[in-house]
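User: Run a structure prediction on this.
Assistant: Running it now.
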Amino acid sequence: MKQGPDTRSAPRRPVPARPHEICPEPGQQPSPSIAAGHAHEPGKWIAWILLAFVTVWITHALITNPGFQWGIVAEYLFAPEILAGTLVTAQLVALSMLIAIALGVVLGVMRLSHNSAAYLASSAYVWFFRGTPVLVQLIFWYNIATLYPHFAIGIPFGGPEFASVDSNRLMTSFTAAVIGLSLNEAAYYAEIVRAGILSVDRGQTVAAKALGFTPTEIIRRIVLPQAMRAIVPPTGNQIIAMLKYSALASVIAVPELLHSAQSIYNRTFDTIPLLIVASIWYLVLVTVLSIGQRYVERYFSRGHLDDNQDRFAALKRRMPILRKI
């Protein structure tokens, strides 16, 4: 009968430790493993108790105080005038941000240009519009007819005019708000674009030049796509800030959300309930923008952000109700 080799006397080779394992010293007993997630964290429970207490306290104050007049809030929450003002606010923010983003990208690239004239022009623009309050700019554009009663197209310095239009007819309150908000926002967005471009490694530009790319192609195809990861988060913040700045347009009689609420409580004297109605709709718009910002950020940060760094993804794992968002 054939027998296998006798392995009883053969010495056993030591198994090499893996890179992530700690090899105990000879004669030392391995320490018992600690179960993850079972450590005592009293600070977490204290934070949850404080949060629950504050939530209950605020809820009780909101319900028991008759000055809030929740019946009137419910009555005007979906009033046609309020809904129309909300739509005007959304249009104002969308148009202003589109113009501001387009102009801000150009100004941001000019700020990094080697052309001295382009650099000085963009720097002067940013200095002026960041240095003057946005409310002053809105009032200025609304009253531009005082300086220029009509806008004309023709040869400058006293030459003939080919066409002209009355400034009061052209510069409506909505147009003045769009111009004032977009020009002001473009100055801030230019700095966001400049910071995003500077975040791209200079070696990318050098490599693109070596491959024969033109400066315009380098910006459009190499730099800006990589800079978007640093540009998108502050862009979302600026859009939300623009939504709140749009309330200033009520000063020049733009029929946006706050102006609509003011028009109602000037008739009914229900100031607090109507302000609550406006605040609710602002919060709704901010929530929609925040959700959109999150998905855009995840799109441009793919490959750089995992679920352990995404706090919202961690909450979705713990709270199934959030998985639908």
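Residues 80-111 form the longest helix (32 residues).
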